[in-house]
Specification:
By secondary structure, this protein is mainly β. The protein has strands at residues 7-11, 18-23, 28-34, 39-44, 49-54, 60-65, 70-76, 79-84, 89-94, 100-104, 110-115, 121-126, 131-136, 144-147, 152-157, 163-168, 173-178, 183-189, 197-199, 205-210, 215-220, 226-231, 236-241, 247-252, 257-262, 267-273. 0% of the residues lie in helices and 53% in strands.
Length: 291
């Protein structure tokens, strides 16, 4: 998603060959792929909406009204969750008819969402209220919040669903949270400002994008001590790990590119130019390949 040029670039994997691009609305930020339906749901922050596109070809199918500052997305249990940063809310859509079926209010600048793979919890990183909120997917309401310093933005859940890792944008801080106890396990200042975080497949390491130093930092879990640093394109934002692979994609906002990183050798192995200020990345299998 190239937010500065209002377009989506399509790349083949793992080679990063540029297959084309298509218009995506005003300031596309993040996306979720629904492979069974053949659709890509894209948040358009400036337009306060979600646009649905065909995965194969990019045709615009439908527009869903969100609220001001539509940004982070997550999907579970036949629902799409959209964080509305400026409206302090999350909009919930059901994915059969794509109608709004729920609304979570009074959050305090929600930027990023994550769903535990056991589909028990929706986690919301709230930048302005400096908190991580826990919402049970099987019931309404909020089950608790954890204070996170420095404007939490990036969020990831460990493979075993026991831990959540949160990166802060205003300070170079990582916070590891116990999901069941809703309590901080460890905090550590690491690298520079963070937007993207992810757990590696073994769950014993995690990685965070360092926006100002143009690197990824790999950390130990649970200590959050630095294990390695990897140079990538300038202004790294989001990171997405490829399934059953040591590879990951990183959007680099300042260099207008996507970096391909191999964690088996802890280095960047390829770059591909895309549109202006890329942020969100989504992967999907289309026609037997994974763009």
């Amino acid at each position: 998603m190239s937010s500065g040029s209002d377009r989506i670039d399509v790349l083949s994997l793992p080679g990063l060959r540029h297959l084309g691009s298509f218009p995506a609305g005003e300031e596309p930020l993040t996306a979720v792929a629904f492979e069974d339906a053949g659709l890509l749901a894209v948040t358009c922050k400036a337009a306060a909406e979600v646009r649905l596109f065909e995965l194969d070809g990019g045709a615009h199918v439908k527009t869903l009204p969100a609220e001001a500052g539509a940004s982070g997305t997550a999907a579970a249990m036949g629902r799409l969750f959209v964080a509305n940063e400026f409206a302090d809310s999350v909009t919930v859509f059901e994915t059969k008819g794509w109608s709004a079926v729920g609304h979570i209010a009074d959050l305090g600048g929600p930027c990023e969402l994550a769903v535990t793979t056991d589909e028990q919890w929706l986690l919301v990183a709230n930048e302005t209220s400096n908190s991580l909120a826990f919402h049970p997917l099987s019931a309404g309401g909020t089950a608790g919040k954890v204070e996170i310093d420095g404007g939490p933005v990036g969020i990831a859940v460990s493979p075993d669903c026991r831990l959540a890792l949160v990166g802060s944008f205003l300070t170079p801080e990582l916070t590891l949270v116990d999901v069941d106890r809703r309590a901080v396990v460890s905090r550590r200042r690491v690298g520079t400002s963070h937007i993207g975080v992810a757990f590696l497949a073994d769950g014993r390491r995690a990685v965070v994008t360092d926006v100002e130093s143009d690197t990824l930092t790999v950390v130990d879990v649970p200590s959050l001590a630095t294990v390695a640093r990897i140079s990538v394109g300038a202004g790294p934002a989001k990171i997405v790990l490829l399934a059953d692979s040591p590879l990951a994609l990183v959007s680099c906002r300042t260099d207008y590119c996507v970096s391909l990183v191999d964690f088996s050798v802890l280095k960047e192995i390829r770059r591909q130019a895309v549109g202006v200020s890329p942020v969100g990345i989504a992967t999907a299998v289309v026609g037997g390949t994974e763009p």
